Amino acid sequence: MNKMVQKIVLHIVLIISAFFTLYPFFIMFAGAFKTQEELMKNAAGMPSDWTFENFPRLLNYNSSIIVRTFFNALGVSVISTIIILFLASLAGYAFAKYEFRGKRLLFIMLLATMMIPMEVNMTPLFIMFSKLKWLNSYRVQILPGIANVLAMYMYKQHMENLPDSVIESARLDGAGNWQIYRKIVMPMVKPATSALAIIMFMGKWNDYLMPRTMITKQEFMPIMVILPTLSDTGTSYVIPWELIFTACLIITVPLLIVFFIFQDKFMDSVVMGAIKE
Length: 277
Fold this sequence. Notes:
Blueprint: H1 2-31, H2 36-41, H3 54-59, H4 65-97, H5 103-112, H6 118-132, H7 139-142, H8 149-160, H9 164-172, H10 177-188, H11 190-205, H12 209-214, H13 223-226, H14 241-274
């Protein structure tokens, strides 16, 4: 009887948690298909008269700046994710399967950098990139974050579980380091790669502080920086919440696509991380 009560209480808690998690997404979705008048009267319910006018209005906003910034964010996020995964996998492989002097100290020092808040680095980074003349460019949004310690750490943890016998057998067969990495190690850590692809893409896609600090020209801005300006009218004019909801819906789509592409391998990574030999 006690177990039944516990299950009922657990399910009630999960249902309530799911409701509070999903309800903001429902408001966003419904608000994207409402007129401004209906949104003011019925902000939390389903649209009584569905409209798609908000999408062309948003795309034409400020000379189609939304379209430009959307593809800016998409390009920066995709390129950053690919570079991060490549470099992190190389570093993780080196720390997991090679022995060299100072390996433990270097690894600890890299992990220690994760304890420093990004906000602390903003001022020196701004000064450095201004002297390099990197401000207002795509490279200032991509290159500073390509050495990702979290990705390196996750790769190292997964690669340490790979049997050394497989790698040694490949070496005896004449395979070089690059061939072992590309044809043996990386296929065996696909779950970790998928999980990191989701995490890194989301992190770069949702990044606001770095581009907001380093970019002042709209042509280089990602959509996350432009999105708050939809409500920055500077007058008593009513904030176009229907456009804000529409923009939020649009920028959610790439995240959902990436998650659905990698979700199976992502769950495999979670399961592998929970298994101890």
